[in-house]
Amino acid sequence: MNNVLVAGKVQEEELCRIMEEHGTQLLRLCYMYVKDKQLAEDAVQETFLKVFQKYPTFRHECSEKSWITRIALNSCKDILRTPWIKKVDRTMPMEERLKNAHAQAAKDGLLADGQLVLEEVTRLPAKYKDVILLRYYENMKLSEIAQALRISERTVRTHLQQANKRLHQRLKGWYFNEE
Fold first, then answer.
1. How far apart are CA 135 and CA 112, in angstroms?
2. Model confidence, pTM
3. For labeling, which of 52, 66, 124, 163 is most exposed (least CB within 10 Å)?
C-alpha cells in the first residue's frame, strides 16, 4: 500500500488504473441511474474525485469495485437531490423526456437493446433499482452488491425477487409473451 500513497494521496498511475478499470462501467451505471449523459459524467467525475481523496482510508473490507460502486451510487443520489435538478422541464411528459434521453443515449452508445426494459427498471423504487442495475447491468455477485449497498445478502436476494416480480408484472404481454 505504501507504493500507492504519496503524501496521503493516490499516485497518478494508480488513479489512472482505477479510472481505466472502472470508468466505462461507472458511466453506464450512473447514466442508468440519472438518465442524463452530462449528469452521469458529472457523477463519475465526482466519484473519481472522492476515490482520489479517500483511497488512503480504504480498508479493503470489501472489493475495490464494490467500494467505488457505492461511491458512484451515492454521487448519483446526491446529484438527484440538488435543488437545480428540479428545474428540469417537468411540463414535458415523462414519456417524451424518456424517449429523448433514450435517443440521446443510443446516439452516444450508452444503450443497447431493451430500452423498454431499462425504462421500467429506472421507474422502480431506489432499493429495487439499485440491486437490478448492479446485478444484471453490472454483473456483480450478490456478495459484491451487499458490500456496495451495505446491506445483507439476504436483503439483496429479497430486493431482487421483489424487483423481478414488479418487472414481470409491468412487462407482461410484451417481454414475457403473456397476457
1. 17
2. 0.59
3. 52
| Helix residue ranges, H only, the chain | 12-34, 37-54, 64-81, 94-107, 115-122, 126-132, 142-149, 153-170
Residue (of 59, 52, 60) closest to 19 by Cα position? 52
Which set of grid coordinates corresponds to residue 62? 470489501
Q: Cα(32)–Cα(44) distance, rounded to whole angstroms?
A: 12
What is the chain's pLDDT, residue by residue, as a tens digit (179 residues)?
444 444 445 577 888 888 999 999 999 999 988 888 888 999 999 999 998 888 888 887 888 889 999 999 999 999 888 876 655 543 454 455 555 655 665 565 544 445 667 778 888 898 998 898 888 877 888 998 998 898 999 999 999 999 989 888 877 655 544 44
Taking the C-alpha atoms of residue 23 and residue 30, their distance in angstroms, rounded to an integer, is 10
Residue 105 Cα to chain centre, angstroms: 15
Q: How many CB atoms lie within 10 A of CB 37?
A: 17
